[in-house]
């Protein structure tokens, strides 16, 4: 399914922001005792996105907007910290020893300050630190998730040199019912034409768009054997045997490999609740897993790009928009676990948001320092809102952004795909004259393929191609793999302003 960003409401909020576009930090604000409405907050955010053509960063919000966003969500804030005097730690995130006294002192002092302030502004509650910390954040990151109830507390934290950032984790521009199924809903395709696949032995379908990247030709030299890919998404379906270790993950010409299914997303609002488990309740993760690693087996199902690679499939989100506190925490946890897994070399993230999350960014800094190669979706939304450029975290320098394009020339992004200067690679995934004919992949159950498109598809396929390259050259570094992908791409020597290095030739990349 398509990766849909929160830009789906841009047109609506555009009308709202017309009346408030001139509002600035110097404009008189409503009484601080009354938080802004969601409509007012969204207008502020929308104006910023339109003005900068960039993802929204909470550090650019006024204290009133920052506080109101918490009040209009779950009051949980990501609070990043560091000892006074520390310089930029993003390049050293993986080297920090957060058990050192200077780090633990800062952490405990900030938690104590927030607890004290919450008790002062909400007398009678007798908050304890554990009452205010509903999420178990990764211990590798210098941040905590903590509830904050007053604007004055946020203003004080912003002034402290120990505070790297303080931002609401759970604020969502969309109403719950409008975004709860973003990217979800998978059914077997009913309109598969003979031109949309090629059948090869033992009995699998090669999606039509694999031919645009010479993937089938690359299989004579590499099928991804020995390489581990981490898929950070909505999990995998328990009803799809081709993604089960004790099912058909090893079948046909896919042999001797492993799939690990892990759940780190907690959908419950109760702080003591365990993760939901690895099962996909959305469908998106199952589709991405199929594109990367579906076996070359039997039954007429579709095959994956790297059909002999190993896969770690995370349920880290409820859908493909990283916009709740639990989703940000789930994604950062999955990234950290993947970074600490010495087997994993590649991370595939067909997820994102138009909001920058410093917690997720910290996890990506950590994984990058650990040598991981990370691909992220440039963004998928409606053709009315994909004017926006590359979304988070694909817009980070530490990730490689991928988007989808139509077949043929000239290069043209798919109907619902984002593009921009941050894009590194593109993948063909849509027929030029029929937007409904996208790539094929596994459905939630059975052998009849489903259709999937957008930058999500492009990201998963690129991760699979990278696995083919690293399998062929197992001693290579991340930089060498990326350089090979670049030089094997259609514009490897002349980067395009919207489509990066262009289409990857998988055969050339492994040859």
Features:
three-stranded antiparallel β-sheet; single chain; nine-stranded mixed β-sheet; 14 helices; 511 residues; alpha/beta; disordered N terminus
Percentage of helical residues? 25-40%
Q: Estimate the global geometry from the Cα principal axes.
A: globular
Tell me the number of helical segments per DSSP (H or I, 4 or more residues long): 14
Biggest sheet record: 9 strands, mixed
Tell me, rounded to a whole number, the average pLDDT: 91
Report the count of strand segments. 14
Strand order of the largest sheet: 7-8-6-9-10-11-12-13-14
User: From the structure provided, what is the oligomeric state, counting identical versus distinct chains?
Assistant: single chain
Give the N-to-C terminal Cα separation.
32 Å
Q: Output the helix-strand order.
A: HHHEHHEHEHEEHEEHEHEHEEEEEHHH
Radius of gyration: 23 Å
Structural class estimated from helices and strands:
alpha/beta
Percent of residues in beta strands?
15-25%
Spans where pLDDT lies below 50 across 5 or more residues = 1-31, 175-181
